[in-house]
Amino acid sequence: MLNKIWSRHSKLLRHLLFWGICTTILTFLFAVGLPSYWLALKLVLMLLPVHIGYYYTVSAIIIPKFLYRREFAALAVSFILVCIFFTCCYRLIEIFFADPYLFGQMKPLNPTFKWKKIEGSIPQQFFNGQYMVHALEQTNAIVFGGLLIKFIGMWYDRKQMALNSELNFLRAQIHPHFLFNTLNNLYSLTLNNSPASPGVVLDLSQILRYMLYECNTDYVPLKKDIEIIRHYIGLEQLRYGDRLDLNLNIKGDIHGQQIAPLLMIPLIENAFKHGASEMIEEAWINIVIEVEPSSIKLKVSNSKPLEQHQGNRSHFGKIGLENVKKRLALIYPESHIFSVHDQEDMFAVILHIELFPSLLPSKRKRSNPSHPLLALSATDGNL
């Protein structure tokens, strides 16, 4: 219930919360030397309209009209004029309302009470430099505090927009890259008039539906992401048949977990494209997905022809892996470990995502072993 109310009226509630906090702080400050907090609160409420009017004039009119358009001279002149206007308003409210009321409340408590601030005529009180400077300080303190919060919020929103734009770009980059590779598989099957072609088209449609319609969120159910991985592996198994020794091992409960979409499948695709497809025989791929309540771990290893180590680019230079690396840095900046092991006869990647960043292992434990098989076998007997 509270979440629905906040989502519908979050902006209004944030502003009400801000002015409530300001009123509370000013009340405690005004209460110093006064007989009660209630008296201080009434004085604050008399002057609060000046703070509200000043702040929204600057934040809703002057800043959008001049700062966003980079008209800095007009911004400075307008700000000075508005500052002078509301400082004068503050001082007039003091002279006609707040000060007489406070004097009237204090006089019965101390019949000998005298207050120099209310002595003299109205023009003398108004043009008193000491009290005018005090009014200037009082009016600008709240406004500057509110503007600081506003600018911090604007900076954060812009940062989030930039991150979302980059994530959307990287996510969109996966789609044609993955589709191109999968269509190559379909093309190979159709050349041979394979009866499995209709099944390939069906699996491909499931993958494309997921990519186009279900991946437009920050996180997706892990179960769904693994389902798409199974579809993709099914496509590749049809292509390679008995030429490929493939092992898929999923450990733990995949229900109820969430993960950023399309992080794991490029790593698995990479094993097929740059491992099995470039070997004539004895190709193998091992895939292990370990799911725990606080983490998700993916280990993918594949065989590699010997000549690839000498002549071709490293796996890590490929589009898919670079894309995953960038997305991990944006989505899980301090809660992931992504290691790549490129050896003469095999290639392996290990992705470890902590769902709770505080549980991330120390970076001092991320040393690479002499051979990746040692690291893989130390944690899983299948690799």
Automatic annotation (TrEMBL):
Signal peptide location: none
UniProt GO molecular function: phosphorelay sensor kinase activity
Keyword Hydrolase: no
Signal transduction histidine kinase internal region domain ranges (all copies): 166-244
Keywords: Kinase, Membrane, Transferase, Transmembrane, Transmembrane helix
Region (Disordered), start-end ranges: 363-383
Cellular compartments per GO CC: membrane
Transferase in keyword set: yes
Membrane-spanning segments: 12-33, 39-63, 72-93
Domain of life: Bacteria
Name of this protein: Histidine kinase
